Amino acid sequence: MEAAAADRQPEIPPSAWAAASALSELTVHAAWAAANARTLQWGASHRDAQRAKEVALQLEALLPEGAAPAVVQLSLAAAWYASNTRRLLLFDAARDLRKLEEAAAELAKVMPPETAKSVKALATSAAWHAANARSMLWLDAERDLTRFEECCRQLPALLQGVTDGAAAETPADASRARAGGSAGDLSAGDALRRLDCALDDVAPLWAALDPAALRRGDDGGAEGEGEATFEAPLAAFFAEL
């Protein structure tokens, strides 16, 4: 009994899962939009930008006041920093690095330090994966993908107590409720499967130019970034394209 109690995972509210899923999707679309723009794949870049904008709107309702703009700026700056560095646009990359650090500092004011650090790691690993994949640096890209997935798995627990109120019910929550279970009653295996649902939406993005993903049998198709519901960063992003 004691061993079972020790193995039992703490309950993670649906709002934390929803925020983690949206954060992971935002950072991926941001990363691929910048990477695709820097390799002249304009159609894919604009699709990713639009999707990132949609996800950013969702984050406003999921994160504390002031967090969503910082997360959007952080994701965009990380995306452009990695892609500009890989294209040797070093002046632009230096500017993006400054923006990245400024956004990270702002995020740390409205989130616990460990949570803010994890969000920054999520954004930078997504950004470098896309930039390295587009530069055909496969080993680096696979390393970045592994780091991104680790961040995805850590994030829901770190977001407990950070997310505001109850987030919109996810399909997994609804299915669990119909089965008579509690949305927060998750074992470790359940938790990983819940995060895998978010990763499933993102998997086709990684598959583009990623041999490891192709070996797993994922579909190809690269996407990337977008901006938030915040007009200044959004205008700046599209100006880069």
Give an overview in words:
It contains eleven helices and no strands. With 241 residues, the chain is mostly helical. It has one domain (19-165, 203-240). The longest helix has 25 residues, at 14-38. The chain is globular and about 45 Å long. Mean pLDDT is 75; it is low at 4-8, 165-203 and 205-231. This is KIF-binding protein. It comes from Emiliania huxleyi (strain CCMP1516).
Short description:
This is KIF-binding protein. This protein is mostly helical and 241 residues long. It has helices spanning 2-7, 14-38, 42-62, 67-86, 90-110, 113-134, 138-158, 171-178, 188-207, 211-215, 231-240.
Secondary structure class reads mainly alpha
Shape descriptor: globular
The residue fraction in helices comes out at: over 70%
Order of helices and strands: HHHHHHHHHHH
Question: Largest sheet, described in full?
Answer: none
Poorly predicted regions:
4-8, 165-203, 205-231
- Computed CA radius of gyration, to the nearest angstrom: 18 Å
Strand content: under 5%
Please count the beta strands (DSSP E, at least 2 residues each).
0
Distance between the ends: 58 Å
Count of structural domains = 1
Q: What's the number of helices? A: 11
Average pLDDT works out at: 75
Protein name: KIF-binding protein
